[in-house]
Amino acid sequence: MSVVQGKNIIRDYHVPGSLTRRAKVVRAVKGISFSVDRGKTLAIVGESGSGKSTLARIIALIDPATGGELSIEGKPVDITKGLTREMRCKVQMVFQNPYGSLNPRQKIGDVLIEPLLLNTDTPAAERRDRAREMLVKVGLPAEHFNRYPHMFSGGQRQRIAIARALMLKPTLLVLDEPVSALDLSVQAQVLNLLADLQDEFNLAYVFISHDLSVVRYIADDVLVMHQGEAVEQGTREAVFADPQHPYTRELFAATPVTDIEAIRQRVARRQALRAAAG
Amino acid sequence: MSLLTIRNLTVRFATSTGSFTAVDGIDARVDRGEVLAIVGESGSGKSVSMLAAMGLLPDTATITADEMTFDSQDLLRMTPRQRRQIIGRQITMIFQEPIASLNPSFTAGYQIEEVLRFNAGLSKRAARARALELFRQVGIPEPEEKLRAYPHQMSGGQCQRVMIAMAIATNPRLLIADEPTTALDVTIQKQILDLLMELQEQTGMALILITHDMGVVAETADRVQVQYKGKKMEEADVLSLFEAPKHPYTRALLSALPENATGDRLPTVGSFMEEAAK
């Protein structure tokens, strides 16, 4: 059964007018349909301005859609009509910048406890125990419970943000560019962690990214967005083996590759150029 | 023949908790007309070593080196007046955040004309004509109008083109590009890299490209220098580096690339460095 399903999702933004400019409506997401099953990853790929983060915020139940139907575990949701606690717990989000998404004045333990405090009736002692357990689960020592965010590196902070998202035992995690602010070696660690957690909790991921090499590694299905539209949608194998839309092909062509044969050809071309110049 | 030579460069910063060594005995050399890529993760000292050569570090930095010369002129013992004849004229630099690198209060045209008048010694009228010519050369659409535009009225890619136009305005012999495409979308990244390589081939200037992206290295460099925690790990021509990386850290960086993933897990740099320590 699908954890989340979207049918023809639309999102409009109203840009207010001024003395010299008429008010207008910008359609950021133009009717996108998708579904994600338990334990699977849907990657949404696109450049800045493609509407991928807008869609992510709709799926994460942060912003309402202007049109279309969104259902979580088969039940339709409309956040303008209010959300049950149960629904709020099912979907959680991890943001791109781990430096901006943690309150600098809040201890890590409190960061993890807060979702439980707000959404559940868990007793205080159990809240603390679960927060400690979760720290260990994401690869941090439980002793870090009383530390502040500034005492952690970028990769560690992203682990904390992931831990916070998992505190409510969600079935769906929306990850908005979770590794693009991290160094390559740290990126590998966080991607490994995400894969482990997905196996352990049978989580569905909606993974927003602009990095095709990361998408190829992590995704089961891929949705390519361009100017608010889904220009290509399919399994990872199909999209990577035979991209249909010109925009997808353009994205592939622009992604730098470390292919030895390509390097050999480029070096040879430069040497020929130099020889010609004398 | 060597254009910029750095031998045994060490940079220390005085901090509240004592002295911190950002660059620890680095050698670097770039020849005329060569493209050198300096690769490393954050904290590897890749930017600091170049800023030291340019004399752009704050007073808290202590710089020592056995040799630091540009075209046989000693950069270490130069008077500020002599340095200004070289920095910004024969050696120029572009940075990661193109929009932040430009002054938001002045038009793009004003800022490039300033460079042309003070560093290339042109008259006001000549500077205006040359600015237009440079904007055309770096492929800015509607160049006449963009001369009158403020940085916030242009996209990130266009701002980076303006920065490149300013950097090549004095016909430099060395251009240092510090993560020039990190803040840009992948299709724009490709355009900017193509432009830099095209300009390099046309003018025969040397180019130092500071990056953390192995894909960018593969598509641009002649020679590569890998840095880690302020030390040089490996130096090789681009083909040998990708074909047969010698240092464990380089191997770690290459295998941590998601596109090179074999199996379900990505190897992390930590596991490689343990292997190296044995």
TrEMBL record, chain A:
<dbReference type="InterPro" id="IPR013563">
    <property type="entry name" value="Oligopep_ABC_C"/>
</dbReference>
<keyword id="KW-0547">Nucleotide-binding</keyword>
<feature type="domain" description="ABC transporter">
    <location>
        <begin position="4"/>
        <end position="252"/>
    </location>
</feature>
<keyword id="KW-0067">ATP-binding</keyword>
<dbReference type="InterPro" id="IPR017871">
    <property type="entry name" value="ABC_transporter-like_CS"/>
</dbReference>
<dbReference type="Pfam" id="PF00005">
    <property type="entry name" value="ABC_tran"/>
</dbReference>
<keyword id="KW-0813">Transport</keyword>
<dbReference type="InterPro" id="IPR027417">
    <property type="entry name" value="P-loop_NTPase"/>
</dbReference>
<protein>
    <submittedName>
        <fullName>ATP-binding cassette domain-containing protein</fullName>
    </submittedName>
</protein>
<dbReference type="GO" id="GO:0005524">
    <property type="term" value="F:ATP binding"/>
</dbReference>
<dbReference type="InterPro" id="IPR003439">
    <property type="entry name" value="ABC_transporter-like_ATP-bd"/>
</dbReference>
<dbReference type="GO" id="GO:0055085">
    <property type="term" value="P:transmembrane transport"/>
</dbReference>
<dbReference type="GO" id="GO:0015833">
    <property type="term" value="P:peptide transport"/>
</dbReference>
<dbReference type="Pfam" id="PF08352">
    <property type="entry name" value="oligo_HPY"/>
</dbReference>
<dbReference type="GO" id="GO:0016887">
    <property type="term" value="F:ATP hydrolysis activity"/>
</dbReference>
<dbReference type="GO" id="GO:0005886">
    <property type="term" value="C:plasma membrane"/>
</dbReference>
<dbReference type="InterPro" id="IPR003593">
    <property type="entry name" value="AAA+_ATPase"/>
</dbReference>
<dbReference type="InterPro" id="IPR050319">
    <property type="entry name" value="ABC_transp_ATP-bind"/>
</dbReference>
UniProtKB/TrEMBL annotation, chain B:
<keyword id="KW-1003">Cell membrane</keyword>
<dbReference type="InterPro" id="IPR003439">
    <property type="entry name" value="ABC_transporter-like_ATP-bd"/>
</dbReference>
<dbReference type="Pfam" id="PF08352">
    <property type="entry name" value="oligo_HPY"/>
</dbReference>
<dbReference type="Pfam" id="PF00005">
    <property type="entry name" value="ABC_tran"/>
</dbReference>
<dbReference type="GO" id="GO:0005886">
    <property type="term" value="C:plasma membrane"/>
</dbReference>
<dbReference type="InterPro" id="IPR050388">
    <property type="entry name" value="ABC_Ni/Peptide_Import"/>
</dbReference>
<dbReference type="InterPro" id="IPR003593">
    <property type="entry name" value="AAA+_ATPase"/>
</dbReference>
<keyword id="KW-0813">Transport</keyword>
<comment type="similarity">
    <text>Belongs to the ABC transporter superfamily.</text>
</comment>
<dbReference type="GO" id="GO:0005524">
    <property type="term" value="F:ATP binding"/>
</dbReference>
<dbReference type="GO" id="GO:0016887">
    <property type="term" value="F:ATP hydrolysis activity"/>
</dbReference>
<keyword id="KW-0067">ATP-binding</keyword>
<dbReference type="GO" id="GO:0015833">
    <property type="term" value="P:peptide transport"/>
</dbReference>
<protein>
    <submittedName>
        <fullName>ATP-binding cassette domain-containing protein</fullName>
    </submittedName>
</protein>
<dbReference type="InterPro" id="IPR027417">
    <property type="entry name" value="P-loop_NTPase"/>
</dbReference>
<feature type="domain" description="ABC transporter">
    <location>
        <begin position="6"/>
        <end position="254"/>
    </location>
</feature>
<dbReference type="InterPro" id="IPR013563">
    <property type="entry name" value="Oligopep_ABC_C"/>
</dbReference>
<keyword id="KW-0472">Membrane</keyword>
<dbReference type="InterPro" id="IPR017871">
    <property type="entry name" value="ABC_transporter-like_CS"/>
</dbReference>
<keyword id="KW-0547">Nucleotide-binding</keyword>
<dbReference type="GO" id="GO:0055085">
    <property type="term" value="P:transmembrane transport"/>
</dbReference>
